[in-house]
Write a structure and sequence with these properties.
This protein is of the alpha/beta class. Helix content is 32%, strand content 18%. Strand 2 and strand 3 form a beta hairpin. It is globular and about 65 Å long.
Length: 376
């Protein structure tokens, strides 16, 4: 009898528990999966009926999230049972953008009118934004390292786009109650991974169709060219940049640029290195490992033209390199081209450029847009 009684009580408790904790309704369940993101390692986008869940992994601690955003369209009420995260009402219409690269991206998305202010105006090259600034229709918030708080308050942006750094806070900007969009795209280690962040920006600015279309084109162009180059049997050896002080910072073997070198059909002396960032090397180490490199690429921001003469004057031992002797050094003066503005989200353009440098016979009619041969 007691056994029957306790069985009935247990059954009743189980039933009550089910009634008090019902199965989540469809609106609370994930629709689809994270397949919207294929290449980016730091970005996850999950669609739900009433919102979109965007997670950004912490680049410096893989066990944690850097930020979680809950995107809710402005055309609907904010759902009552949202997961914890920063709620962002979309599309954004009056943003403060710190970096010129994201201004350029928004130009691609035809969303320049949704930028209300910028930092570091002197680095902005977008003509439409410069025109608005001249006419007083764009807020100049000053230096990105220390923005003018009064101007930011006057702008009253609906979001602030900035690039995060390890262990860095945002001071008074972070205490204003304005959603801060941490653009960690620059920390991706693959060209297509960074470019895929355009999907996130498309969601933020109501330009999802445009973003998907652009990325589809980029992906197609990049993969087709990479596969074409991949069948070649020859691979010139490439090195990059210059020494700075006592160290020469070379891209790590698992870095963004090392991936470009590989995909463009070049051999890279430090390809077996496991670093995703730059590796500091002595001049002697670089020369011993890569003194016979075939091609040398240098990015700079020079008012005067970089030449073999100025290079040797800066540091005479540079002349010992094979690429110097055989005049195979190419310079990219970022003050004269849109290298940093275009290539992060159009890696297909840079891959084409590098492929033409490394394998000129395959692209005899290519006109260079970033790198140029150094003058004497």
């Amino acid at each position: 009898m007691n056994k029957i009684f306790y069985t009935c009580v247990l059954s009743a408790l189980v039933l009550l528990s089910v009634q008090c904790n019902p199965k989540p309704q469809e609106s609370d369940e994930q629709i689809g999966n994270d397949s919207i993101i294929e290449y980016a390692e730091l970005l996850s986008i999950t669609r739900h009926n009433d919102y979109t869940d965007v997670k950004i992994s912490n680049p410096w601690d893989s066990t944690r999230l850097l930020h979680r955003y809950i995107l809710v369209p402005k055309t609907q009420n904010v759902p009552s049972n949202l997961p914890q995260g920063t709620v962002v009402r979309t599309p954004l219409s009056n943003t403060l953008v710190y970096a010129s690269v994201h201004c350029s991206l928004l130009e691609q998305l035809d969303a320049l009118s949704q930028i209300g202010g910028v930092c570091d105006l002197s680095y902005i090259k977008t003509p439409a934004l410069l025109s608005r600034a001249e006419n007083g229709k764009l807020t100049d918030a000053g230096n990105s390292m220390s923005p003018d708080i009064e101007r930011v308050m006057s702008l009253n942006p609906d979001a602030i786009l900035l690039s995060p750094f390890e262990n860095a806070g945002y001071g008074r900007i972070g205490k204003m109650g304005i959603p801060i969009i941490e653009c960690a795209d620059y920390l991706e280690t693959s060209p297509l991974g960074r470019a895929e962040w355009i999907k996130f920006f498309g969601l933020l600015y109501g330009k999802e169709v445009e973003a998907d279309s652009i990325f589809t084109e980029v992906e197609k162009n990049y993969t087709e060219l990479r596969d074409k180059i991949g069948v070649l049997s020859s691979a010139p050896v490439v090195i990059s940049e210059l020494k700075s002080g006592s160290a020469w910072y070379m891209p790590g073997g698992k870095s963004y640029m090392a991936r470009f070198f590989k995909d463009a059909g070049a051999a890279y002396p430090w390809s077996d290195n496991t670093e995703t960032g730059s590796i500091p090397l002595s001049f002697e180490t670089v020369f011993n490992w890569a003194g016979e490199a075939d091609i040398w690429l240098i990015k700079s921001f020079h008012v005067s033209e970089l030449s073999y003469r100025t290079l040797q004057k800066e540091y005479a031992p540079y002349a010992r390199f094979k690429a110097f002797r055989e005049k195979k050094i190419y310079g990219c003066d970022s003050s004269r081209c849109n290298y940093y503005e275009e290539t992060p989200f159009r890696p297909d353009l840079l891959l084409q450029e590098l492929a033409a440098l490394f394998h000129p016979g395959l692209f005899p009619d290519y006109r260079f847009r970033y790198y140029q041969p150094l003058s004497e």
